[in-house]
Amino acid sequence: MAQDLGRGEALFEACKSCHSLDPAKQGMAGPHLAGLKGRVVGAAEGFDYSPAFKAARAKRVIWDETRLNAYLVDPDAMFKGGWMSPQGLDDEADRAAVTAFLMRGR
Ligand code: HEC
Q: Which InterPro entries does the record match to this protein (predicted)?
């Protein structure tokens, strides 16, 4: 699985224009994604989410592997009217690798 993590990390470069892995880093276009495993949806401190994400947060929806993989297929299908673009990763192996990287438990 070390290979997958490396691949996921490399693919995550494309997400870094909007997402940091450092919770202290504010002011990016998207919320930080540190410690995403088990995190409540829409709960990064200091980020003003779309109404769709705020509704999910109110319901205490949790990020796990299954949810993240499905989100990356089509973000707008999961959280209608959400603000994330680009809309998804088409390649299944790419999604699995990014999911494994973000869910590695740190
Ligand atoms: C152009 C900017 C941009 C890029 C590139 C981007 N995102 Fe996002 N992402 C966002 C925004 C904005 C949100 C917040 C969505 C909302 O509030 O509706 C978000 C939300 C998220 C969330 C939910 C976080 C939470 O706190 O609940 C995850 C997970 C995520 N993105 C993963 C990714 C991954 C993985 C990639 C790369 C494949 C990526 N994003 C690329 C802008 C981006």
A: Cyt_c-like_dom (IPR009056), Cyt_c-like_dom_sf (IPR036909), Cyt_c_1A/1B (IPR002327)
